[in-house]
Amino acid sequence: MSSDAPGNVLFVVMDTVRADHLTPYGYDRPTTPGLADFADEATVFEEAVAPAPWTLPVHASLFTGLYPSQHGADQENPYLEGATTLAETLSAAGYDTACYSSNAWITPYTHLTDGFDHQDNFFEVMPGDLLSGPLARAWKTMNDSDRLRAVADKLVSLGNVAHEYLAGGEGADSKTPAVIDRTQEFVADSEDWFAFVNLMDAHLPYHPPDEFAAEFAPGVDSTAVCQNSKEYNSGARDIDADEWADIRNLYDAEIAHIDAQLTRLFDWLKDRGEWEDTAVVVCADHGELHGEHDLYGHEFCLYDPLVNVPLMVKHPALDADRRTDTVELVDLYHTVLDALGVEGGDPAAAGDTAVARDPTRSLLADDYRAFDDAADPDPGQAAAPGGEFGFVEYSRPVVELKQLEEKAADAGIEIPEDSRFYARMRAARRPDAKYVRIDRIDDEAYRLDADPGETTNVAGDADPAVEATERTLADFESRVGGAWTGADDADVTDDAVADMDDEAQERLRDLGYLE
User: Fold this and answer.
1) pLDDT for the residue 150
2) Where are any strands of DSSP class E within 136-234?
3) pLDDT per residue as tens digits for the range 16-39
4) Rounded Cα gap, residues 212 and 126, in angstroms
5) Measured between alpha carbons, how far is residue 35 from residues 71, 139, 262, 266 in Å?
6) d(Cα 394, Cα 269) in Å, to the nearest integer?
7) Which residue, 116, 151, 284, 361, could crosslink 334 as a Cys pair with Cβ 3.0–4.6 Å?
């Protein structure tokens, strides 16, 4: 980049925020006036594709430039290892780096915070320093043991479950102002910097601050609506139209709180004279379903409300405009390196995979997504040299599956093993078409231009756009190790729990894991 390019990067992830609930994306409620103002000086991307529908693999991709099947971080292997992170690369290049979040997956024990000079996860149960050192090593030992893997799966979601139980008074929303405060403190004490922020307000459960609840969800009792997606998805709990409306109103109130806090941060940067010297990325890692396709939350599918995410970027190399070409969140790794003039590619540890900056994946480059010019094409570049496709991967969500099974069992419901709940999925998507390969049920395909709600499955209908998308997906699959066509064992029971001592079992019981 030129010498007058911004010397700092602020990277904001609005966890679980759907694009169609944001003012810049045409929502008819004023949830995000601050982001609307930001959009006036940023590029708004309408066809951004997340590499997965949930936090851990998406953030691992943001921090490594790798697709989920390449970095391997998922609920069956819930930590990132063997890959040099963006923060490690930037720290080595002399940038001050910080990560502030209240998300239980973005912690030292998952290694997502590796390389950040400063981090605080505002964890609901355990402080950040407890999650590093001996506990992080113990975490890895548990995941390397087949006997203890199920217990580790439980522990990694500790913060999210604690959030569900505690958020009514002091949940993630109450952490968001602290996240912004810490970000301001970091910026004030730094020269050239990279700050990564994850805001959890819009993640279940929804207990928005009173002022936002009064505006967007007046009269709604957040403790009375269904706040557990597994109850609904398992069939143990029904939700009628009025309750869905209440849930969506609470969700909007949460998004409005995010907007207010981001506006506070943006205004502060402007008052300090930092705004012009700061490139700003605002996106969601994934969205959320509120009853569409008879699903609640962000598991068990790859529908567009989850994977077609909001993305807005402010940088002098980008016009204040709207774009409808395909963008992948994987590209943001290269965009940040490009914004700060860092090449990358040097392993932080022997044997690490380290991805170098690729101009064909940088939003700031003239040859962005001209993948046939890539020096060392990755699977997505090789499968779609024209750059018009994005790719999504989804392995089995074993933590959510266990909770789903427990809710179903309590209601006397048996979940079929040949269902989407036990399925692994991959998708190729371009603005007009999507094809989803699913290993336990029939594949799904949609003409997004004619059917944006994905209501009619046209897999097998000889639609030319869909067939081209399926061929591209097959090529991508071959390059990442083959299609997920052999369904895994559906058993997700926790035999290792019986071997835990009484104190450990009681702690899990207190947090809602055991009855």
Assistant:
1) 52
2) 193-199
3) 999 999 999 999 999 999 999 999
4) 28
5) 32, 38, 8, 10
6) 37
7) 361
